[in-house]
């Protein structure tokens, strides 16, 4: 099996292209190959597949074997992969995802290679039951989730996949491992949830750290950065465009007032290619 290791701001993936469908053992493969001691090591396994509705289709399996509906960092990696390897020659293309439909993607090219990718991430879903949460409100703003006697105020946003954004005094120093797993699996969130801890430093810049559903602490989360921007606008904390600073680097996120869509801009990078015996 041929694979390529890529990352988006340190959120790393094993990319497999050339298959026509997701293999039946994709979950087992993801768990085995994503293992950082006994496998290749990655946050997720990503398949680039043919699509009837778009230029390509992407499927992503988290490192615990669960399938995610969408992944912002992976979609940028897929876009760079298909352009830099010559599978596509145009700089505007479409990629179909499981949970967010067909997403338009624009590539910025430097020296013949993709340097930055802007993805139209679609409209955020704010209705609590659709995120999903068990809360029948639209939006879910200022509700609290209780874990071991500590109450966290959160905003719930789906970008095709579910997110819960919590503001803390120091996102950079926050103890992700202590609270992330308990929030991810809290009964308020029927399909589990990605948890973003955020600190707003100005109306243009937010620090964010993430505990990902099915993958644990990762260096970046594209959909999480989009959810954080949406939450920050809804809470009156930032303007509609801001830099979200993650452990692995910065993403620029904009929420367009006219069409209600979210645009994410950031890099993607190759690490190496290999063959799995
Ligand atoms: N890292 C991602 C999100 C990956 C999926 C997530 N763990 C989930 O289960 O929803 C991103 O960059 O968006």
UniProtKB/TrEMBL annotation:
InterPro entries: DAP_epimerase_AS, DAP_epimerase_DapF. Its EC number is 5.1.1.7. It is found in: Cytoplasm. Substrate binds at residues 11, 62, 72-73, 161, 194, 212-213, 222-223. Keywords: Amino-acid biosynthesis, Cytoplasm, Isomerase, Lysine biosynthesis. PROSITE patterns: DAP_EPIMERASE. Pathway: Amino-acid biosynthesis; L-lysine biosynthesis via DAP pathway; DL-2,6-diaminopimelate from LL-2,6-diaminopimelate: step 1/1. Homodimer. This is Diaminopimelate epimerase. It comes from Cohnella boryungensis. The gene is dapF.
